[in-house]
Amino acid sequence: MIIVGELINASRKAIGEAIRAQDAEAVKKVAVDQREAGANFIDVNAGIFVGKEAEYLQWLVKTVQEATDAPCCIDSPDPNAIHAALSVHKGTAMINSISLEKSRFDSLVPVVAGTDLKVIALCMSDEGMPETTDQRLKIADRLINGLVQNNVPIDNIYVDPLVQPVATNKDFGIEFLNAIEAISKQFKGVHTMCGLSNISYGLPNRKFINQAFAIMAIAKGLDGLIINPLDKRMLAGLVTAETLFGRDNFCMNYLNAYRSQLFEF
Ligand code: THG
């Protein structure tokens, strides 16, 4: 399971303020806390700063890398901001994300071609956001093939089928879950990744919904999550779900998590 820590996102009030004030210590603390909680990548997102996004994203990458050894997951819909952030990143970053939108695809394929960068392939096209399993599969197929043909190893591709709020359509949960299952089965060796919180948009007690959804997605094969790694209840649920899904020899991960107190709540 790959965990991407989501907390360094300018849409969160404290982070937006820290970026605006160039408060490196505040950002570093959130990076270190997430790394110590088990994050494999630290997501960095400065998307609210129109016109300054590239500059701020570069600053976030530098600041995070001064504080931790974790690589960044560079989160922006703007290829230029991603280019800028990558130019200062040390080691192997994850790009969040490429999609089938033509300008985004054409701009980012040359960046990942023949490299060892990890890349999130977001199921979105110029026709908009997919709603059904089938629409997601068609986009995933074109994205995976396009990347593989450009010498991106399948093991470096993380397909994000795109979570949509279940409050707007009762089938948005199941269509996403079935997409995870179909993608994992049809494209052997590819990874899957998702941000969870959209599923609960507009509903009360969102944490509870996000956790239930994460566990259901793991039971369909999901192996990457963009989450708040400081949420111990969420992490306990994820570790347990992986053990139950057959990904934990001799229940060692479960037992280690129990003993380490990392997952106590
Ligand atoms: N897929 C991919 N990337 C993504 C997403 C995705 N990046 C952004 C987002 N979705 C995941 N990141 C976050 C970061 C922070 C929060 C949610 C998702 C967050 N949300 C608070 C909440 O849900 O209650 C509200 C914000 C706040 O704290 O003020 O913190 O799907 N590839």
Describe the protein's topology.
Blueprint: E1 2-5, H1 13-20, H2 24-36, E2 41-44, H3 53-67, E3 72-75, H4 79-88, E4 94-99, H5 102-112, E5 118-122, H6 133-149, E6 157-160, H7 172-186, E7 191-192, E8 194-195, H8 206-218, E9 224-227, H9 232-244, H10 252-260
Parallel strand pairs: 1-2, 1-9, 2-3, 3-4, 4-5, 5-6, 6-7, 8-9
Bound molecules: (6S)-5,6,7,8-tetrahydrofolate (THG).
Describe this structure in words.
The protein is α/β, with parallel strands linked by helices. It folds into two domains: 1-91; 98-230, Alpha-Beta Barrel (TIM Barrel). Helix content is 47%, strand content 13%. It contains ten helices and nine strands. It has helices at 13-20, 24-36, 53-67, 79-88, 102-112, 133-149, 172-186, 206-218, 232-244, 252-260, and strands at 2-5, 41-44, 72-75, 94-99, 118-122, 157-160, 191-192, 194-195, 224-227. It has a nine-stranded parallel sheet, covered by helices on one side. It is globular. The model has no long low-confidence stretch (mean pLDDT 97). Bound molecules: (6S)-5,6,7,8-tetrahydrofolate. (6S)-5,6,7,8-tetrahydrofolate (THG) binds next to strand 4, strand 5 and strand 8. Belongs to the vitamin-B12 dependent methionine synthase family. InterPro entries: Dihydropteroate_synth-like_sf, Met_Synthase/Corrinoid, Pterin-binding_dom. This is Pterin binding enzyme. Residues 1-265 form the Pterin-binding domain.
